[in-house]
Every structure is written in structure tokens, then in C-alpha cells.
Amino acid sequence: MSLLTTVRIIAIYLAIGFLVFTVTTLGILILYPYAPDPGFSSILSESSLLGAPLSVILLFGVLYGWTLSAARRVIVRLSCWIPSLSPSARLLGGIRSKQASEPAESLDILSTLPRPVFLLGISLAAGIFLAWIPYRPDLNPTGGLIGIDTGIYVDWIARMLSLPPAQAVAYSFVGGLNGSRPLVLLTLYMVCLGGNSPSFTIQILPLFLAPSLSLAVYVFVYFGKGDVRLAGLTSLFTPFSYYLTTAMWGGYYANWLALVIGFLFLACLLRQSRSPTRVKYLVAIVLLSTILFLAHPWTWLLFASASAAFEFSLWFDTRRTPHALSLVGIVLPGVLLDYVKTLVFSTPSVVLDLTTKISVGGSVVGFWSLTVDGLLYTHSGLLANWLFMGLALVSSFAKSVRGSFERLLMFWVAAGSVSFLFLDGYNKARLVFDLPIPILGAMGAVVLLQRVGSGNVLLARLFFVEVLTLAGAYALQSMLLL
């Protein structure tokens, strides 16, 4: 028996042993508090806490790893005019060609996984189950509200219900943090008009938002990559990520809804980038950009910045007019709505409000401490997930930016990384929440599956299940606050 075979056998046995541990822990958490726990959940929780500081370093890699890809593209282009750069360009070009071949190899590994519809179904069910946990009658017999901002939303809706309809609509554009959340307030208001109380309406809202986000991510990845298997895998990562846990405990309902709309917006943007003359996609972009601004203008600002840079890069490469029109369609709706809302309701504009959140000197000097504060101490450190950060970092360094999907993700992260430099700890955490780290994490898992699967398909499948059980255990422990 060769040394390589022996190592593979040992690796398989170790993977099976660790998988038994995590699956058992996951079962204990699903049945909590009715299943006996010999301390497995505590061991997993302590290991997560030990790995949390590492997530800060991994986050830096995710945020600023795109600069290496950008530098590679610049050097390759400049080598045409600067002969001394040719050796570097050939080396980087070879790396890029190797990276470009990775998706095709990864698809073979993805074909060994369960059917995409099955993965999507599990994702939708998991999202509903996790969103229901904090309001389980046995765990929360009084029906107390969950989430830091949840009580504020209840007060806003109660205020609107006490007003005549016309004034209630006007209040949604003035109240709720200077009218920054009219879409979610009006939606909740209309639901409450049917006789539901604001508290009950807020409690059931996550049961709709959680599966909606999984479905929106599925559409985004399918439109972006054209691969239903990768879309199914990515949707499965969504409810197990901080998207759901942080949104629940933070009460980020408007931000949560904005992510759902934002992923659909980006899906249409990617489809339009391949068929720039199709008017229906341009109309969808304008409409979804408008709705996104009404849902959460800060999320719109990040998505609009990344999308505008993406469309500009396409226009720069092709000089095609439809890309310029798309750029206008992305930015103009939000700018006009911001101006009209400021003019009619005398609320601060997004740009003016942004200046109150930026501190160039203090944020740069205290960059490390503010990042630690935002990631490890905001919302009990739910964002400090070393597993997703590590997988996202693998994706950031392994993927090629030649495709439109990867290019859009790069601009998304790049737009966030620039803003990240100048925000305080809390707003850094809010910005991380809006980044595509769970998407990059799913792609990083595919890269590792391809590497492991090239040597042993069984080991790759064990790795796949292990990652999912670890992610699921993180989500369950977060929702149970264990």
C-alpha cells in the first residue's frame, strides 16, 4: 500500500469521525432542549469562539483580495507597452488561464451532489425553521419580540395605524429613521389593516423573508452562472449564513427585504449584460432599482455603486450604448427619489446622511479596533463566522474575474471595501451584512470540493456534508443563543 493511499484512508476515517460528531451535535440542536447533550454543543460553541478572532483577518483578505486581481489585469494590459513587464504578464496570464478552467472542472464535482431542486427545497425549509425557532412557544412562551430594532418597527406601525390613511402613507416617508424604510413600513401597515396586530405581523415577517432570500440568491446565481447546480448549492448556504441570524437578532427587516430585491436586481443586470439590446431587462433594472431605494437606501447605495462600476467596465470594454443606458437606469431612479423625498418631506438626503456616518481620521487610525468591535462584539459576534470567511477567501483568490458574474462580485466587494475604511464599528458590521460573503463562501466550497474530489470522490462528499453540518450548527446555535 502506497503512502498516498494510506494518507487518504486516514483522512477518510478522520473525516467520518468528525462528521459523526457534527451530525450528532446538529441533531441535538434540532431537538433542543429535549435531547440529552453530553457536551457536544458546548465543544462546538467553544471552537467557534476560538476561531472568531481569525475571522477578522480572513475578512481583510476577502475585502482587499480583489486588489490583486485588479493589479493582475493592469500588469497584463501594460505589458503591451512596457516590455519589461512581459515576464510578469506571462506568469499572471498563465495563472488566469488555469483559473478560468476551474469552473468546468468544478461542474463535474457538483454533478455528484443532490439535485438542485432538492437543495433549494432544503434551503427554503431550513430558512422557515430557523426563523421560527426564536418564537417557538416552548422556548418563548410569552411571545416576546426578538431583535434589537423589532420593537421600533412595532412602534412605527402602531403610529401609522393611529393616523388617517393619507397621513399614514406620508408618515412612512418621514418616520422610520427619516423616511428611509417606506416600502417595508407600508407593506406591514397594509397587512395590519386586515386586523393583524403589529407584533404578530413582525413575528411572521421572517417566515416570508428567509425563504424569499434563498430563492432570490438561487435566481441570482442561476442568471449569473447559468448553472442550476451551483445555484442550488448557493441557496442552501444562504439560511445557514449570517444573513438570517444577524437579520433576526438585529431586527434588520428593511435591510433583509432590500437584499431580496437587490439579488433580483443583480440577476436582471447580469441577464441584461449578455443581451444589452433587450428592453425588458432595462425596464426591470430601473423598476427594481427604484424599489430597492424605497426598501433601504443604504443597501441601494452599495448595490448601485457596484452595479454602476460593473456597467461602466462593460461599456469601457465594448463602447456599446446599451451599457451606458443601463448605468443611467441604475443610478437615476435613486437620485430622483432622493431629491423628491427631500424636497417634499424635508428629510435628509442619502448623501447628507452619509457624511454623518463617515469619519476619515478616526476610522483610519482606529481601523483595526473598529473592525474587531464591529465583527466580534456587534450582535454578539454573529458576523464572525470563520467558516464562511475562510471559504469566501478561498473563492476570492481562486476565481477568475473574466466572467461577468465574477466581475460583478469583485466590484461588489470593492465598493464595500472602500466604504469600510471610513465607517465606525457598528456601520462596518452593517456593511459586512450587505456583502456577498455567503455567495463567495459557497463558491469557495466548490473550489475545495474540486480539489478534494480530484483525489477521492468519497472524501469530497464527506467534506460537502461536513461543511453543511458545521454551517447548520452555527445557525442553530445562533438562533438558540447557545
Write a concise keyword list for the protein shown above.
single chain, 482 residues, mainly alpha, globular
Write the layout of secondary structure elements.
Layout: H1 3-30, H2 40-64, H3 66-78, H4 86-100, H5 102-110, H6 116-132, H7 150-161, H8 165-172, H9 176-179, H10 182-192, H11 198-225, H12 228-237, H13 242-250, H14 253-274, H15 279-295, H16 297-318, H17 321-345, H18 350-355, H19 360-365, H20 367-377, H21 386-398, H22 404-420, H23 425-433, H24 437-453, H25 457-480
Low-confidence stretches: 94-107
> Based on CA inertia axes, which overall geometry fits?
globular
Roughly what percent helix?
A: over 70%
Gyration radius, in Å: 23 Å
Structural class: mainly alpha
SSE pattern, N- to C-terminal: HHHHHHHHHHHHHHHHHHHHHHHHH
Compute the number of strand runs: 0
In whole angstroms, how far apart are the ends? 45 Å
Residue share in β-strands: under 5%
- Count of domain modules: 1
Main β sheet profile: none
Question: Helical stretch count?
Answer: 25
Q: What does the average pLDDT come to?
A: 85
Can you offer a commentary on this structure?
With 482 residues, this protein is mainly α. The protein has one domain. 78% of the residues lie in helices and 0% in strands. The chain contains 25 helices and no strands. It is globular.
Summarize it.
The protein has helices spanning 3-30, 40-64, 66-78, 86-100, 102-110, 116-132, 150-161, 165-172, 176-179, 182-192, 198-225, 228-237, 242-250, 253-274, 279-295, 297-318, 321-345, 350-355, 360-365, 367-377, 386-398, 404-420, 425-433, 437-453, 457-480.
